[in-house]
Amino acid sequence: MTFFTxxxxxxxxxxxxxxxxxxxxxxxxxxxxxxxxMASGYEKGIGKQLxxxxxxxxxxxxxxxxxxKMFDASLQKKVAALPRVAETSTLLMRMMSxxxxxxxxxxxxxWGGFTWxxxxxxxxxxLKDRSEKAVVLGTLAAELLKxxxxxxxxxxxxxxxxxxxxxxxxxxxxxxxxxxxxxMQAISGDEGKINFLDIRVPPNTSKAxxxxxxxxxxxxxxxxxxxIASEVVGTSQGFRVxxxxxxxxxxxxxxxGVLGVMNTMLMTVFERTHxxxxxxxxxxxRRRLVAMVLCESALLGLLGGVVGVGLGVVGLITLGSSPxxxxxxxxxxxxxxxxxxxxxxxVVGVVSGLYxxxxxxxxxxxxxxxx
Amino acid sequence: xxxxxxxTSDELIYxxxxxxxxxxxxKVIALRGLDLEIRQGExxxxxxxxxCGKSTxxxxxxxxxxxxxxxxxYRGRSIPDLPDPAAYRAHEIGFVFQAFQxxxxxxxxxxxxxxxxEGKLSRSQRRARAVELLESVGLGHRFNHFPSELSGGERQxxxxxxxxxxxxxxxxxxxxxxxxxxxxxxxxIELLLDLHRQLGVTLVLxxxxxxxxxxxxxxxxxxxxxxxxDQLAISH
Lengths: 371, 236
What we know:
The complex is a heterodimer of chains A (371) and B (236). Helices cover 55% and strands 19% of the residues of chain A. Chain A has 371 residues and is an alpha+beta fold. In chain A, strands 1, 3, 4, 5, 6, 7, 8, 9, 11 and 12 form a 10-stranded mixed beta sheet that branches. Chain A is elongated, with a radius of gyration of 28 Å. Chain B contains 7 helices and 10 strands. In chain B, the strands form 2 sheets. Chain B has a 6-stranded mixed beta sheet with strand order 6-7-8-3-9-10, sandwiched between helices. In chain B, strands 2-1-4-5 form a 4-stranded antiparallel beta sheet, with helices on one face. Classes of the chains: A alpha+beta (371), B alpha/beta (236).
């Protein structure tokens, strides 16, 4: 028999209560894995998209949610004149319900701009010109919308022909509906407006030089912001809200888990007052009793963490394949997040056990024996 | 078990002077200025009616509670002021209680190993020691049984084996036969006497049964929290 045997025996003596406590912790941890995994998946997805398109700097308005507010397309000329700018491309993007699909990314892109370059046509053809009232669909978008080349797609009140299916080189791109910027502006009644200006810099431009370019853009577009592509999502106000909501919801779930473990450990200590008295009479030091209670609660946390990560992965996969999410969020099954979640669960266990452990260490042996 | 002659030395184990213990802010007075000395290797029986303070005295001797007033020394050191009372309980004292006080979710073998966690024995040494002790009290066939599967007499044997786990100098037994039938009671007393003789441990036994008390080398009668008489037993 080892000290661990004693710890384990304490947990297995009340299997139902232990299981219910584990469920409490694991729900909290599953929430962390699922929600933070989704938020992180969104961040990574957008990063991969920008990488796939080959964007170095993104200019957008400061305010707005996940999609920033529109601004005047005339900014493009001013930016293009700045040093260290190789190419520019304007975009008007929307996230909206299209036909039966609950929410889709629609990207109106400046015809001839570099943002079209990396798409590979798999079926049909690319758009003919800037005025063609047609769309090309990313592979996933075509699957979600159940469209093939030759079908029509209704956006707002406009019926557009599906002329091609493309591989956009990233999940977000593949989940997107592409059309010419001019047609997009006409459909939405936003002529002359854009909400993104994508910029490419010459090869071998250093990050410091790109940062200088961002400062220059800020001077001519003070109400907007220019971000290095890799930092776009992390600094987006909308994404910050999403991330904060993910963590705050997770924290709430974890708090419930903490209270669950604390309640269980307190009940355990109360129930075992007599046994603690026996152990004290046998010469157990108070710090060994504290260690026993803390090890029990840490073990509860660890087991809850492992189960929670399992549940979280199932939740993440389920959510990732749900109609509202599939196409623009790639669930992030990140081992680091899973390890962090398990570590959080263990910390939750230890923290929850502190008060019960302290209580157990304060017992007078003679009184505990009489209980 | 072959009994050797008990050995009593002059070494003072316990020195108790003017010991007082009050509970409930002085509303209950358990000990009212008790004086007592116990020497190495003695078998002392403490008798008296319920509520006379004998169990309270045993708890003070075992550092399970602190006195309100008075001197309580173990080998010249004040028990209430011991820097590590747990170490005193673990290595100097073996407790045997009326209600056995075994841990119900642990087997007989595991129960006996419990006090050894405060020692330096390895896992296998702890197990070997527990096996040895259980065999010495005649429970070599009960290792993997739980306390609920044993008779009262067997449970008390386990408790005695556990009390001897760390080779204590003193065994404090509080009504060890109180929950047993007469046959088991005789067996337990014989076992305690054998261990006392063989190991030379100081045995302090609280009882209200005079037949048992008369097996001791010394009988202390208590009344109202004080020592009434302190005399050698007739058989000695």
